């Protein structure tokens, strides 16, 4: 996958589907968003560590807060893609076991064709 496609997926989660909990998100969309948000927050954290200026921590915190809803939405849609209700996201509240299960599910290929939550997102790429 090329860099532009990763940016397009991440931007689509923030701009086009900010709080869209309906439909399905393919693996590439979820992991692209996760990668981009991790890089952005990591850069601000690193800048804070290097310079000691708390403004970078504040900006990073505000960005993380602004990306909370689209992060939840893309995770919800990702679970829809494998045929699970988005409510299964809360299994992540169980330490270690819940996190591992979510990671496995997020890595799993989506159900081919239409499912209860909508059309296969691979058909539109």
Percent in strands: under 5%
Instruction: Sketch the topology as an H/E string, one letter per element.
Output: HHHHH
The span between the termini is 12 Å
Low-pLDDT sequence parts: none
State mean pLDDT (0 to 100 scale): 95
Large-scale geometry: globular
Biggest sheet overview: none
Q: Work out the helix count.
A: 5
What is the total number of structural domains? 1
Structural class: mainly alpha
Radius of gyration: 16 Å
Q: How much helicity do the residues have?
A: 55-70%
The number of E-state strands comes to 0
Fold topology:
Elements: H1 3-16, H2 27-51, H3 54-66, H4 68-81, H5 97-107
Helix pairs in contact: 1-2, 2-3, 2-4
What would your notes on this structure say?
By secondary structure, the chain is mostly helical. The chain has one domain. It is 62% helix and 0% strand. The chain is built from five helices and no strands. Helix 1 crosses helix 2, helix 2 (27-51) runs antiparallel to helix 3 and helix 2 packs antiparallel against helix 4. The two termini are 12 Å apart. The mean pLDDT is 95.
Give a short summary of the structure.
The chain is an all-alpha fold and 125 residues long. The chain contains five helices and no strands. The protein has one domain.
């Amino acid at each position: 996958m090329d860099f532009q496609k990763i940016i397009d997926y991440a931007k689509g989660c923030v701009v086009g589907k900010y709080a869209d909990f309906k439909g399905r998100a393919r693996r590439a969309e979820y992991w692209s968003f996760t990668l981009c948000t991790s890089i952005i927050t990591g850069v601000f954290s690193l800048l804070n560590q290097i310079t000691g200026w708390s403004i970078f921590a504040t900006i990073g915190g505000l960005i993380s807060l602004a990306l909370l809803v689209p992060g939840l939405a893309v995770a919800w849609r990702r679970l829809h893609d494998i045929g699970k209700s988005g409510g299964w996201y809360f299994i992540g509240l169980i330490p270690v076991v819940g996190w591992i299960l979510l990671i496995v599910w997020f890595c799993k290929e989506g159900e081919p064709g239409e499912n209860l939550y909508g059309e296969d997102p691979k058909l539109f790429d």
